Each structure stands twice: as C-alpha cells, then as structure tokens.
Amino acid sequence: MGLCVRIPRCFAMILGLLWVCSFVTLPVSHASEKVLPEEFSLSVGVGFEFATGKYGTDRRTDFMVVPVTFSVSPIERLNVDLVIPYVYQSNGATVFGSTMPYRTQPGNVGAKIVDIARFQSGPAVPSASGSAVSNNFDPDDSQSGIGDITLTADYGLIESREYRIQPRVTLYVKFPTADRDKGLGTGEIDFGPGLAFGVWLGKWHPFLEGSYVFQGESDLYATKDYLSYRGGLGYQFNNKLYGAVLASGASSPADGSPSPFEGRIKILWNAISQSDIECYISTGFTDGSPDLGTGLAFYHRF
Fold it and tell me: DSSP string spanning 220-270?
C-alpha cells in the first residue's frame, strides 16, 4: 500500500498537459481558489473526466465521469455548487473510485476480502467467513448510471482587498442517487463542514482547505467518517491564464481501505468573455487513488 512514486509518468503528464493547455481554458472551482462574488452570478458547466488504476490489485479499473455543474452566487461572498454526474466504471473492483470493503455481518467489519478481487463492489453479499455469495453478479461487467449528486456551499468570512485574503467556511452534502448494487455509490447520505483559506501575494496564490465528512452507515460497505484535504500553489500568468500545482488526499474512507493521496497540475484560462474551460492531469501516490487521471470542462457564466 505504500507510496508509489512514478517519475517517468510525471514527465509524460507534464508534456501532455502543455499540449492540451495550448488550446483550453477554465474558472476556479474550489473554495480556497475562488474570487469572492460581489453580486449575483450563475454559471453552468459540463465536463469529461477519466481515471484509471489498480488500487493495489492485479485488476485495472477505468472510470469516466460526465459532470453537469450548476454554480450560483445568490449574495455577496456566498457560492453554491450542484453537481449531477453520469458515471461509468469498467468492472466491479471498486465502489466508483474508492476501495470499499464489505461488512461481513451488520456491525462487524471483516478483514477478509472476496477471492476475485481485493475490493469487490456490486450486489455480491459476503458471508460471515468473508467469502462472497455471487447473487448473479459478474465482477468483470462494466457499470454505468447517474452518480451521487453533490451540493457544496462556501461563504467568505472576511475580505481584504489589499491582500486578497479569502478565509471561507464550507459545507458538503452527498445525496445517494447512485446505484449501490452496481458499485456506483454506497447508497448513503454523506455531509461535512470545512474550512478553506487562500491569499493573493502579488501573482502567487497559496491555498489550503480541509473538511471532515460524516458518512452514512452502510449495512453493505464498511464506511467510516474521514478527513479530506487539499492544498497547493497557484500563479496568475496574466488576466486570462492561471495555473496551479496541488496535492489532495483523505484519511481512510472505510475500515481496511488505504488512504487516497494524489498530485495534480491544472490550468485555468478565460479565453472568451463569459466562457471558460478547465484542464487538469493527475497521478496517484497510494493504492487509494487512481494511477492516472485527466479532465476537461466547459463553463458559461450568465
């Protein structure tokens, strides 16, 4: 489960990112990187994300997401994001991007995992011994459908125009709209408060944020509450182009599951007056994260 540093892949990622970013653009989407709204605003976005990884097993799983995002700032310093994703995964080796062991019986988390994969999702139900009852579930089948809808709100506590200091409080809610029997979600409501902080120092922009997520207790998966965090350093190249290098991770989201941790490079470029495009590429450093990920999104502000 240890760290898996992939130096050659990182070089390939950087070269690929430079090629992609020669024609793409984007707005900042996380609380610690946002410019505080001064008046009502609304934006709609659609994107495509791809990730692939083995999660410490000998089976590779590919993921694709098409998120539709509605972002509104109804009053000064308040922003609310609603994300409705359509998701796909190539097999049942994970619970859509998370290594999520089963419970062997209600209230008892088992250490044994099914033979066909280290972490198996879908409707197969483990017995008390840790073996799985197939329930006509083929772990090699791909699964797709509506993912979990998420709602994120953040509010700026203070604002300093001189130093662009941006401390914010955040609230995250995940609604269980994904089919847990397909391994696309846990089938439970999650929520979590958080804090975010960003500051502009000339063209440089350090930022840091974290939240504590309370997961709904599942009778199928061994879920538990976890701490999520991200931080990095951005740079404003000009009034249209912004780039950032960041790291993100979390504590273990389930008993027996490795903690995710990944690095990411992204570019934000406002190419057209009211429209933006998002571009990023990432790599995982633990068995709890995908080996490689990339994404592109288009946003329009009204």
Answer: SB-B--EEEEEEEEEEE-SSSEEEEEEEEEES-SBTT-PPPEEEEEEEEEE
Kindly report the pTM of this predicted structure: 0.77
Phi, psi of 214, deg, nearest 5? -95, 110
**Which of the pair, 106 or 38, is modelled with greater confidence?**
38
How many residues would you count in the chain? Answer: 302
Q: What is the pLDDT of residues 12-43, one digit of tens each?
A: 444 444 333 333 333 334 655 655 455 688 99
Residue whose C-alpha is closest to residue 53's, from 89, 20, 18 = 89
Arch. (CATH architecture) of 7-301: Beta Barrel (2.40)
Cross-strand pairs, 126? 132
Tokens read off for 70: 């509605």
What are the residue boundaries of the structural domains of the chain, listed by start? 7-301
